[in-house]
Amino acid sequence: MLAFRSPLVGESLAIQNVLKTIEKVSQTDSTVLITGESGTGKELFARAIHEASPRAGKALVVVNCGAIPPELLEAELFGHVKGAFTGAVQARQGRFELAHGGTIFLDEVGELPLHLQVKLLRVIQTRTFEAVGSSKTVEVDVRIIAATNRDLEEAVRDKEFREDLYYRLNVIPVRIPSLRERKSDIPLLVNHFVQQFNQITGHAVEAPSGAIMDALLAYDWPGNVRELENLMERIVILKGQGSVDLGDLPHRLFQKYTESRPSGEGATAEWEFPRMVLPQQGLDLKSIVAAFENHLVDQALARTNGNKNRASELLQMNRTTLVEKLRKRGMIVPAAQSRAEAMAEVAEAIASNQVPTGATTGATINNGGNNANTNPTAGNIGSVNPTPINPTRGFEPNV
Ligand SMILES: Nc1ncnc2c1ncn2[C@@H]1O[C@H](COP(=O)(O)OP(=O)(O)OP(=O)(O)O)[C@@H](O)[C@H]1O
Ligand SMILES: [Mg+2]
């Protein structure tokens, strides 16, 4: 991992609720127990509590109870006197003392051996302890935040975790939801990490959208935000620049995406509409939707060489609706239409049994409900001029 302190990213309801709780608890000295799967951001939230608290100017001491060998953990937490054990050549302060005035974050507290659970219980109750090998009681002013990805209630049932300690720690429980429970945060996190790693590495990889974003949304992220962060770091470093392709995604993601894509008859727009991140300043929804519609209409016309019958079939809409849309966009220009074009239109309409009311070959052509005209060259079924779409800022249609 590249060293970089991330801000808390997330707008989902689930994260908003966590943030509200954190805001409230940060103003107190109450003990907090943060739970959640690995990689959900437990440490980040613990830091957020400390940084929003009146203790922010003091130390935040982090102890990973699962990473320190059990025989060393007691001295690490509470300190030791000189000669307390082999190798204790001089006295050393423990992490609780170092956190005096600030906060101690006991990560993976579920891994704490039973004999240290008793000692921790006493610290929580009295804020006092003795260093290893000492009989002198030390008093500290420390706020305790603990975290675990273990089910502590189950550990209590299995007699691996003391029930009294569990209740002492669990004064304010904060559960960080898994990423699959708040998939709406994925686009924000993806953009955040791509931007972050571009900035760190000086690379210029475009934030994924379209099918790539669909694939990222379809995946369940068992490693949660950490897994997503690591993937974005890898993609930015290996890609260097340009847009991300499906081939840049690891097999597990790609597979999940192809499995989850509906196929064949009845495949709805669910997987086809573009994903975009709502910009902070908001957007003009009407014009975005109109631009997207025009984009698909133009594609349908281009694919059918301007044949409005086939284009309207592709778009599953009435031909008249399509014609109306084109007219509104000024893409049907009566005066500029040649006789040959008009005849082709009539032939096309006849072939598909959609001859407009009153129309006969080479004679009357419906001009949109106004006056009938016997001169095809003056009719209003004009040639279609599929203009390239004006690319809409900020979204990339997945078509
Ligand atoms: N909401 C978020 N916004 C930005 N970055 C996040 C967010 N949540 C997590 N991260 C990042 O994801 C990574 C994992 O977060 P963190 O270490 O806090 O998870 P954890 O729950 O403590 O994991 P573990 O249980 O494995 O210790 C970190 O690099 C963190 O910065
Ligand atoms: Mg952690």
Structural class by helix and strand composition: alpha/beta
What is the 3D form? Answer: elongated
Helix percent reads 40-55%
Computed Rg: 33 Å
Kindly state the number of beta strands.
9
The number of domains is 3
CATH superfamily of the largest domain: P-loop containing nucleotide triphosphate hydrolases
CATH topology of the largest domain: Rossmann fold
Report the sheet with the most strands, covering strand number, pairing sense and barrel closure. Answer: 5 strands, parallel
CATH class of the largest domain, please? Alpha Beta
Overall mean pLDDT stands at: 82
Q: Which hetero compounds are present in the coordinates?
A: adenosine-5'-triphosphate, magnesium ion
Annotation field: number of helices: 15
